[in-house]
Amino acid sequence: MNSRFSYFSKNGQILPLDQATIPLSNIEYSYGFGVYENIKVRNGIVYFVKQHLARLQHSAKIIGLTHPFRNEAIEQFINELVAKLIRDDSDNSFNLKMLLIGGKEPQLFIQALAPHFPDRKFYSEGVKTITARYERQFPNAKTLNMLPSYLAYKKAEEHNCYDALLVSSADTILEGTRTNFFVLKERILITPPKEEVLEGVTRATVIAVARMHDFSVQESSIPLARLAQYDGAFLTSTSAKIVPIRQIDEQHFSLPEKLRVLMDAYDNFLKESQGILAS
User: 20 to 30 A from 77, CA-CA: which of 12, 53, 237, 244?
Assistant: First the structure.
């Protein structure tokens, strides 16, 4: 396995990375019977771990994946792995991927990955996106059943776009293949209802920060045909935070000043929060 990191965690045991293997006979992995999470670690701070673990458990529950791992134990696994990586690999900024596989003997893998930092110009100029018609079977679960999303993302890459936005049978935009979607009208943020999408941790924290800074937030459907009525649009994700959109298919957007205000406020929040979201 090609990685700059030397260790991973399997069921809480820290092992050399060359032992990170899954047998070909593991039918649960082959069939995608699993859930996962990506957690940001910057300067040794593990961001929003409790929110990520809550979503991991919720995803597992949705697809009927029973397992013995409790949040307190998983958090300890994470902290032990982070400490080991910082000490032995001399790296304090990375992403953690948690992979929970179901079956008779469920397994929890935690691996460090190099963080993906978007091009800085994306934050000042915005990104291009395309749309793709697809509704995930379990929208509230972060599962390994990712083939349609993967194909949509590859199509976006072929068109030199940052992501593909998934469109419902009712012609509403739901989310990106690996992002949450928002539009902006004056100081109102609008995002699809959480019942219809994967409720990203960054999505939730952006909503919290927006309300702290006198933005209103509405959860409602966003018709593809009405995009022109909004002042701006953006995506959120763990690694990229808030990324403005400059184009969806043929619809162009500016980068309104109010969106820049929100981006700055969110950056400041991350610096001050130390990875903890107040309830």
Answer: 237
Tokens of 57: 């458990």
Is the CB of residue 240 less than 8 Å from the CB of residue 38? no
- 7-113: which CATH topology? D-amino Acid Aminotransferase; Chain A, domain 1 (3.30.470)
Position 279 scores a pLDDT of: 46
pLDDT classification of 275: cutoffs 50, 70, 90: confident
Cβ(106)–Cβ(12) under 8 Å? Answer: no
pLDDT in tens, 209-236: 999 999 999 999 999 999 999 999 999 9
Fold adopted by 120-272: D-amino Acid Aminotransferase; Chain A, domain 2 (3.20.10)
